[in-house]
Amino acid sequence: MHVISVRTATPTDLDGARAVMLDTVYREFGTGYLPGWHGDIVDPGGAYLLPARHTLLVAVDEAGETVGTGALDARGPGSPPNPGWLAQRYPSGPTAQLRRVYVRPECRRRGIARELVRQLVEFAVADGGYRALYLHTDPAVPGAEAFWRSLGKVVHDERTDPEHPHSLVHFELPMGR
Question: pTM for this one?
């Protein structure tokens, strides 16, 4: 079994992190790069390494290859495209949003995503200014919805919302101590 370590990204990790993220949006989501949604992928350093309350984690194998990513920032969900009540419940600033929790398909089912999330939650708690941990996922990605349901609670399922008929499922995770 290969040894994977999860750690805070450095500038030298950005190319590997970007590759994991782009591969995911192209292969898993089928959307490809969309500038309005994926600007942080192009500049993960500016999005996650520079702001003090943001972070980017990488999962790296023993050969130094990045096999997973996880990020957190202080931006809540915007409205639109999300319902206004959701943006009000999770405002920017006191909301830690988990983003880009991606693991290469060949490395899944080994606890990597769970460790990424554990460290992101730890980061949010240590910050001291976050009141809530929020994320959304695309349930069409195999295993994604079940994974997040095992860690948090659903606060909105767009598949049952006639006013916002998209496909995302929104979650809140416990802050945990």
Answer: 0.94
Three-class SS state of 124: helix
| C-beta of residue 170 within 8 angstroms of C-beta of residue 86 | yes
3-class DSSP state of 69:
strand
Are the C-beta atoms of 117 and 49 separated by less than 8 Å?
no
| pLDDT by 10-residue block (mean), the chain, 177 residues | 89 97 91 85 96 97 96 94 94 98 94 97 97 95 94 95 83 86
Alpha carbon distance 68, 60 (integer Å): 7
Tell me the helix, strand and coil percentages in the chain, rounded to 5: 35, 25, 35
Do residues 3 and 62 lie in contact, with contact meaning Cβ atoms separated by under 8 Å?
yes
108: left (phi over 0), alpha (psi -120 to 50) or beta: beta
Strands 95-103 and 132-137: parallel
One-letter amino acid at 74 equals A
Pairing of strands 95-103, 153-157: unpaired
> How far apart (Å, rounded) are the C-alpha atoms in residues 151 and 169?
13
